[in-house]
Amino acid sequence: MAMDPSLNVHGQPLEACSIDPLTGWYRDGCCNTDEHDRGLHTVCCIVNEAFLHFAKDAGNDLMTAAPQFNFPGLKPGDQWCVCAATWRAAAEAGSACPVDLEATHQRTLDVVPMELLELHAV
Q1: Which tens digit of pLDDT belongs to each residue from 104-121?
Q2: How far apart are CA 72 and CA 120, in angstroms?
């Protein structure tokens, strides 16, 4: 069964995650996804230093700008749609950052239990 592409983890309309910096698989400000998004960039995070360093150590440097990919580089406090598996791994390692559930896509629930998201909800 196909899911509505724009519902959050509560089954409500997906809210915007970040316009500045502009985030999302589609760079539309929302954590929408499709079958081409292998990383499932669906968790709307308020990144912090612990998470940014966890991601970098895991091979995903979110702090360094990559203009060729329209990526500004993130600093603590920025909101960004991150990969569900990366966020879950960070949470399990004690390096989770806060999550905006209203802006987190329901497909996240394929990877991250709701209870874990709620522990870190803003």
Answers
A1: 999 999 999 999 999 999
A2: 25
Task: Give dist(CA 100, CA 122) in Å, integer.
Answer: 6
- pLDDT, tens digit, for every residue of 23-33? 999 999 999 99
Instruction: Extract the tokens encoding 18.
Output: 């970040």
Please, how many CA atoms are within 13 Å of residue 74, restricted to the half-sphere of its CB? 24
* Cβ contact 97:90 at 8 Å: yes
Which stretches of the chain score pLDDT less than 50?
Answer: 1-4
CATH class of 10-122: alpha beta
φ and ψ at 44, to 5 degrees?
A: -85, 110
The one-letter code for the residue type at 85 is A
Spans of all domains in the chain: 10-122
